[in-house]
Amino acid sequence: MQSRRPRPYAVGRVLATGVAAALALVACGTTTAPQPGETSLAGGPVRPVTSQPVEADGGLRCPESIDTAALDKPVPVPQKPQGVDATGRLLPDRDPTSLVVCGYPAADIMKPVSAPFRLAKRTVASDAQRAALVEALTWSPRDTGAQRVCTLMAGNETAYVVGAAYGDAIVWVGALADANACSTSTNGDFRSGPGPAVVLDQMFGSRTPPSAGVAACNRASWGRLGDDRSLAPEGNPTATVCRDAADGTVKAAQLDAAKSAEVAAALRALPTKPTGQTCQGPDNPSNGRFTLLLTYAVGPPVRLSIDPDCAPAVLGSNLESADASSLVELVEQWSARIPGPDLNGSVSSTSP
């Protein structure tokens, strides 16, 4: 796909509702500091809040058009984060006063679409949508630049621009939803992977969201903040062992708090390196493979593929580990092997 140069956004002259007080402080030479605890992984600038256009409903006004369709480049944002240090997360770990989602069709398999891509839909998120989207963006992990496994199938694409207004800050996030989930997302300071675009398309696009009755083992995950530093990011997750049975069903064993803590400790003790997201194994693997799902009280889960017959044996979203013998021995005390399907070929951790 040909890369295109982004066009500049028009600058509005209307103040965003809820940031007037912060703007008054900026006018007096005072820059609003980040909220405590929201930027523990950050260390960047806190820009003054400037005038940005709003609509009659009080939400930020969407740019009329954008000019991007390159999978290797994030959708550009109207402004970099203002009033908050956003170098550690896509969005601050607190609720915005308003949140708008702007959608721009960027590719259509039924008819040609060319840049600049015009605004097709603007949505002011409901309370429930806002809570779900803020959680997804707040906990979306940092993009490490590792090459993803992409099929590059043809399909429709939608570029999303999310505008989050706070009492003392404004943050925009850009994300491109493509058929292969190969793109990245950004707020201008922090870059993440395809997860935010998938969530946005599920909530505001044409993709069908997963039903409420989906079992724990089938819960999707696009990674979690911190999974580039540990196979079990910080927190006290509940561990579920998921094994594929020969009849095509999934057998789940949810571990209690004490056993889950042992599993998390074992994962954190493993030597790791950045993952290539695939492993090489025999044509007839044993029934030793399983998936570990780590579920946290807040934020998305972590999915890990474990296969003692594969090299490397442990695959995470951003890390891998070569030797899983100690972890397998621990887990098999509480979840014994079962006859599984004959799965040939490589294992990938890219499937949600």
Oligomer classification: single chain
Helix content: 10-25%
The structure class reads alpha+beta
Strand arrangement in the largest pleated sheet: 10-9-13-14-15-16-11
Number of domains: 2
Q: What count of helical segments does DSSP give?
A: 5
Please tell me the overall pLDDT: 79
Quick one: biggest sheet?
A: 7 strands, antiparallel
The parts where pLDDT drops under 50 for at least 5 residues are: 1-41, 207-214, 344-352
- The run of helices and strands is HEEEEHEEEEHEEHEEEEEEHE
First-residue to last-residue Cα separation: 25 Å
CA-based gyration radius:
22 Å
Beta content comes to: 15-25%
Tell how many strands the DSSP assignment holds: 17
Estimate the global geometry from the Cα principal axes.
Answer: globular
Question: What tags apply to this protein structure?
Answer:
352 residues, alpha+beta, 2 domains, 5 helices, disordered C terminus
Description:
The chain has two domains: 20-204, no CATH class; 219-348. Helix 2 packs antiparallel against helix 3. By secondary structure, the protein is an alpha+beta fold. 14% of the residues lie in helices and 21% in strands. Strand 13 and strand 14 form a beta hairpin. The strands form four sheets. Strands 10-9-13-14-15-16-11 form a seven-stranded antiparallel sheet. The relative contact order is 0.13. The chain is globular.
